[in-house]
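Subgroup meeting minutes
Present: P.N., E.W., G.H.
Scribe: E.W.

1. P.N. recapped why we're keeping a running log of single-chain structure predictions: easier to compare across weeks, and new members can see raw inputs and outputs side by side.
2. G.H. added today's entry (732 aa).
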Amino acid sequence: MASLIADIKSKFQAAAPDKMREVPMKSLLILVGISISLIFVVLWLVSFKGDEIAQKRQNVLFGAILESQTSITQDMTESLLALPGTTDMFFDSLSKREIHTKLTQRFADRLGTTDILISDIEGHILFRDASDISIYPTDLQILSPSLKRLRDKIQLSPNQNFASDRLILNDEVYHVSAREISMFDRVRYLYIATPVESIFSHSFLIPLNLKVIAGTHPPKQRADLYVLDLKSSDGKIVGWLSWQRHLPGITAIRHFLPTILLVAVIIGIISFLAWKRATALSNDIIFSHQEAQKLALHDPLTGLANRMLLKKQIETAKADVKRGREGFALHLIDLDKFKDINDTMGHPAGDELIRQAATRLKDACRANDTVARIGGDEFAVIQIEATSTNTVSRLARRINEQMARAFVINNTEVYVSASIGIAIDATGESQQEEIHRRADIALYKAKEAGRDQYCFFEDEMDAELKHKHKIERDLRQALQEPDKNGLRVVYQPQVSANGRHIRGFEALIRWEHPVRGNVSPVDFIPIAEETNLVIALDEFVMKEAFKTALKWPEVTMAVNVSAKELHQDNYPHKIIALASEYNIRPDQIELEITESVLLEDSPRVAKTLKILKAAGFKIALDDFGTGYSSLSYLRRHQVDKLKIDQSFVASIGVREDASAVVQAILSLGESLGLSVTAEGVETIEQRDSLRKRGCAYLQGYLFSKPLEEKSIVQIMKKFKDRNDQQRLQKIS
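Output recorded in log:
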């Protein structure tokens, strides 16, 4: 401004020096007025545009914060459930004080007013607690339908244990989440209800006078307010978010207007300062938006993309494929044995391992691939331009190689591996939920194949998974009413090698499905082990076997024990209590375990076996010879008996190496003072060969098929009559 006036003055002086003083003041005022007007127009345009940009950024900011409420609730839930003893309290005492301290108060400290509910699988509320114990903030009658929808959503998605929604309660918009918690064959649901408004408790938002308004009709429009709709998971509007308009441009103009009017000479300086101030405010908003967006879209521990950003990137990859680019692959990655390290070295060490694993993942991938952390030890990679399965396989192998190298945590080398499930979308037409589901199924297959593997999704996997889910559902129902659903225990005799005496019986599970007919144990027992139903299944067999053993105290009763049972801290005490309840002598019961259990060399398993041995139970090693057990394991765990696997018995006389293995097992048993039983004896030749080699006890269809409990009387009488007849023949 000053330079413009000086320029005009110089021109007048050059043209007419004597008339300079005659220049009308009116012209100067007009010039100043025009300059001020131009400045005001420019400032108004700048402020209007700045306010428009600010409004858009505020919409994006609050939308991102709203979306982060689910992630925050889920992360807090998972963190609290990971604490020792937290899961147990949902199934044991349901102590109000304990849950209030461990859950309710912690959620309330972070999210404000909190309502905690716990239900069983049917939705019956077992427990309720609130951050203010004198008042429950939500109406249970209104809340119940929403809880059922969340349970249904989890139960219909096999690989999902968390769901959330928004709804209106007590004239407020609430964020309600559900988390499925499983232990053994029991299921609980943890519900957390918090006001949506609590997520906006950040101090930098307080000046905006932010409010959450419940209802389906928008609030009355006001020039000084912004409004954003709040929707439930099914897209219905349940409320509105309103806040005070933040107008950095107009604020700047109002601040500097008196100075501009009073000091026109220095208007340029003031305008410059105002522009600088407006720019600073705009930069602050941009920075705040960037920080909020980073918080909403990235994992705080690793800096990788989170689940929300992963979903956006999948949609971007799909759109690129539709525009003609090559397909993309989704890799779901799970760290094998991470939980062991987390348990033994502590959570800080586990976090450090996660950070190092994230770095290795980024190193293995290209810069334009997306690497995300989507759970505790779960990662995902979007590999774009996946031109062939070979290209995808190369990346999967690089990831496996990176994860197989030693990690150094607290100056200690630790080892994990990675299981990878891969789904490829070559058309861009698949829904992202379907892509994720396929990769998840492939991940399950990779783990099933022995871990440290990668596996591509195939259509056959889907059919197999559906079949497994049907078996699991029917088995769960059968365990609730065994007699009605065809679950029963049968008993196969174990006889002396001379065929004169029944030494004992082995209790075996059978399932005559009401619709499918006979379901082989080979089909349903692995599924039971995967889903923890094996614990309830073992308990059912154990109780039935104890009932039968009580009637025949002179013979032993062998019962198979799963590896999962042996890893339960309370298992030995449960079995000892069960034997006492049924008045069974522990030395009458023979617990059969597999070689793989001993190979784990678990301190917990060793302690369990030691307690059971001290109580008088006998330990038998089933399917001996199929694994890698050593003499040290046999001595350390005080095994009483070896059972020769039926695959070796079937090969006697057919394969020389099988006969040699049988002889070696018999010699080993003799040298260690262990009893030996051969399984699967079906021919006289097998019986004679085993008897000749010194095998003391035999079991198989040659002597008897597995019998119903009522048939034991007959076979015991049959052997008794045979022995009586032989004694009479000797006397005569």
